[in-house]
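Quick entry, no commentary yet.
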Amino acid sequence: MKAQIIEKDGKPEFAVIPYVDYQHFLELLEDEADARAVAEFHEAYTAGREFLIPDEIMRREVAGESPVKLWREHRGLTQQELATRAGISKPYLSQIETGKRQGTVETLSAIARALDVPLDVLTG
């Protein structure tokens, strides 16, 4: 790389480099920023401050399916099993899954604990 140095008051003030070198340095900076972001996420995930949502669940939820139902199925639970773990009735859980009832914060918190997911994953 050949740089042109521009001085001001006898001291280097600017370095002019070929554009191709400039682009290369930008790519290196972006790679470094990406690597830093990945390392920060990995650290947060390992420490339990981040939660991953499987692609299949995300796609189905975006399509309109109930996150409670999706996570219940993902965890391999029946409605009765989840209702029992959450301390609610099966009909109430069914109504939440079908959207006929929203569920109270307390109920949704109990369901989230039973599914081992953060509450905001179920409430959006």
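second:
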Amino acid sequence: MNQMRRKDREMKKEFALGIIDKSEYATLATVNEDGTPYCIPVSAARKGDTIYIHCAKTGTKVSNIKHNSKVCMSFVGDVHVPVEFNDKSSVEDSDKLIKTRFTTEFESAVVFGTANEVSDKDEKMVGLRLISEKYTPLDMPYFEAYVSKSIDITNVIRIDIDTITGKRKKFDKNGIEMKFGRVE
């Protein structure tokens, strides 16, 4: 497994788990039977060190997971391109702010894990409930009725986290990068 190159931007596990929880989607990477990579955006929700996604009963990701259960997922939290210059900026300002201008502030998490189809109906309900609470919280009064009609045709995949890393690049109000987990 690859090591993070910019260890000065590494964040704690709790930070990385929080990125999973707030991300709008994740990218799931699997390996095709011929060894070529395959990745696809998915809706993911987490409970502890387990991530749930849902999908159809057949398809490339399902076939790949059956062939090789090792997966990688990436999640992106807040992203911001600093725009510090304006019509009143001076050359002196540009010298001070140039390091924050041509970059992107970001936060991300990368998970390596093991994926398996969930066959237990109770666990499928747990996974679908987590996903629904994250993405459609206002529709939860209808959850039981909808899921009771669709659970047999819905596939739920459980990804058990083997390793997780979190990374962030963010500047404080003075334009200094906050490293080694420093928060403001």
